[in-house]
Structures are given as structure tokens and as C-alpha cells.
Amino acid sequence: MSERVDAKVVVIGAGHGGGNVVAALRTAGHTGEIVLIGDEPIVPYHRPPLSKGYLKGTAAMESLKLRPDSYYASAGIALRLGARAVAIDRTAQTVRLAGGGSERYDLLVLATGSRARRLAIPGAALGGIHYLRSIADADAIRGAIGPGRRLAIVGGGYVGLEAAASALALGSSVVLLERESRILARVACAPLAAFFDDYHRAKGLEIRTEARVEGFEGRDGNVSALWLADGERLLCDAVIVGIGADVCDELAREAGIGCDHGGVIVDENACTSEPGVYAIGDMTWRPMPLYGGRMFRLESVPNALEQARRVAAHIMGKPAPAHEPPWFWSDQYDLKLQIVGVPFDSHRLVIRGDMAERSFAIFHLAPDNRVLAVEAVNRTPEFMAGRTLVGEARIVDPAHLADLSIPIKDLAK
Predict the structure, then answer these.
(1) What is the three-class DSSP state of 363?
(2) Helix (H/G/I), strand (E/B), else coil: 16
(3) pLDDT value for 1
(4) What's the gap between Cα 1 and its chain centre?
(5) Sheet of strand 294-296, all strands in order from the earlier edge strand to the far edge
(6) Are strands 94-97 and 102-104 parallel, antiparallel or unpaired?
(7) CA dihedral 149, 156, 333, 383 (to 10 degrees)
(8) Segments in the chain below pLDDT 70
(9) For residue 297, what is the DSSP state?
(10) pTM of this prediction?
């Protein structure tokens, strides 16, 4: 591994990955030119609060920024905000921008993330149908919800549930429509999904499962109702669609950089098939050493941060940081959900705590009782212990996990 301390680094994408890789490079002692290109007109910011505190108006824009505006100039990082990269020339080592202009690079980092998946059904282009990915999206939704407003949410994943909790807090009436037989069908075990289903219903959320939206109708260009596959018509003043995300890997594909169905293919250090080109964050199809090198895509802030640190270390010729187990979180009402690990090959579930008291953790175990994943609701100690148990592939006695008289920290020693 050779140091590239003075190389010019261009980063495409000013989200969590891009914003943190430029900072990590400067912290590690990089002295070369750094350029950060982002298609939004603002500096990198936290996206998770968009469906929670920011949507409810309890978190201000300034509190979302990863670093103050002044940081970038003081760190010698050139910002190209409101600029969209449209092509990569690998031979000339340049990035072409929309509207003219280009940036030469010695090293390139792709951090373009993912975009909200769109519905392709009749009426989907009507006004008042929202997707939540950016702060501009959140601003538009804030203007569409409030007392007396009828909101329909399409999709029962974490974004849909978080947005529902925020909209209810602001006085809207909300119906959530999920085409699967339960909410959180792809991202949570059945007991956890049932707990959240019950909790949301108790807060006033109407949940319809096995409900497939077939089309929208409008009045004066704005959505006014939607149709379900069974013929039912539901009136609404606004719609939020949260049905997943698609990777923004077009730049890489068009440049001939290796991609798979899951995004840009990278190794453990986020190196792509093209020497000198890295990719990080949601857009990557990456190996996970904790799961035998299995390849998959992670949509999470911690994943982007880990890859950013590994890229900075690789460029600077320094040892790579240790791999971390993947982790995620979600805030809904007074519930804090923290998840560590991915339950591949989960054989057994062990519940620690009391679901009725809204304080519990669900441990996913392999056949040999190795801890694969932990889903913790208002149980931060279990989540923290889970990071150790999952990261070290610990084998734990299921009876000890369920026994609250045994401190969880003792099991993680």
C-alpha cells in the first residue's frame, strides 16, 4: 500500500459518505487538493432526522449539518454544491459536470447514494405525492401535513412508520398502506413487527396490510384520492411513498466500472474495479467479513462512515480500521429501536425483557447459539452488548440471555 498524501481527490456525492470521507482524509494528514461535488445546494447533513425531528419541527436545519459551513474552507476542501456530475472519463481522469465544466482527479470517490423508488402507476405524477430523501422533500411534506389533513402513506417500512408518527403528532389523520401481509416485512422479525403494529394502531394510525395501490386521482393537478386493487377508493390530501430505494450507480456503469444488481462492486477497502476509484455508502455492493464475505448492500449511516474511514486509511497508506457489525436505528413516538447485525440463517429467537412494558430485546441465534443480530426497543444496554456479541460471533446460553437477573454486560465480557 503506497501513500497518496498529495493526490488530488474528487468526491462525487455530498451525503454522509462523501461528507465524512473528505473530513477523514484531512484528519489523517492528507495535504493534496480535495473537491466535494454535491447536487444539493447545501453542505452535507444528517438525513435520518428528516422523517422524525425535522419533519415535526423540533430539529432545525443547522442542527442537521455534519459540520458547520465554515469547516470546509478552513480545512481546504473545495465545495461544488448544486452541481451534478454527468460523466466520468477514466482515461483522462476527469469528471464532467452538467452545464459545462469538469474536474480532474488523481483519485476519485463515488458516494452518490440511492434515490427513493418511484411508483409507476396511473396518477403518480400528480402534485401532493411526496418521496422523502432530501431536506427539500421534507420541507414539502411539512407544508402538506397538519391538523385536519388526510395523509396516506404507501409502504410499511421504517421511513413510512417514522413519517406516520410525525404526521400524527402534527394532527394529521393517517392511513398506512402496506402490500405485504405485515409491516416491516423485509427488515424486522415477525414479533417485532407485531409489536410496532399494535403500538402504532394504539396511537391512532390506521394500518392496512395486503393493500396494493393501483392508482391516484386528482383535482386541479393535486392528488385527492387513491384506488386500491380491491376497488376501494380512499380520499386523501397528500401522499408519502416509502417503498424502498434504488442505487445511483449510473455514473459508474456508464464509465465501465464493475457493478452488480446491488450497485457498484467494491472490496473490503471500498476499491472498485478501476484502480484509483473508490465507492462508498448506499450505492455499494460490498463484502461483509463478519458474514463470511457475503456480498450485500447496506442502507445505513454507520456503513457509510465505516467505508469512508477505510478509504481514507487506504489512500493514506495506513492500517484499515476494524470491521464493525452493521447497525441501524429508528425513533417512533417514545420508542427507540436499535438493531445490530443481520439475521442470516437465524435459527432461534430469544426475547429479553417485557414487550408489554415497551422495553425488550430480541436476540437472533444461529443453530450453535452464536448471536447473529439483536433488535432492541428502549434497551440500549442490550444493543451495546449486542455489538460485542455479534461482532465477536459469541456463543451464548439462550437461558442466560432471557434471564434478567444476569446483567447483560456480564454476558458480553
Answers:
(1) strand
(2) helix
(3) 47
(4) 31
(5) 259-260, 263-265, 284-288, 294-296
(6) antiparallel
(7) -160
(8) 1-2
(9) -
(10) 0.95
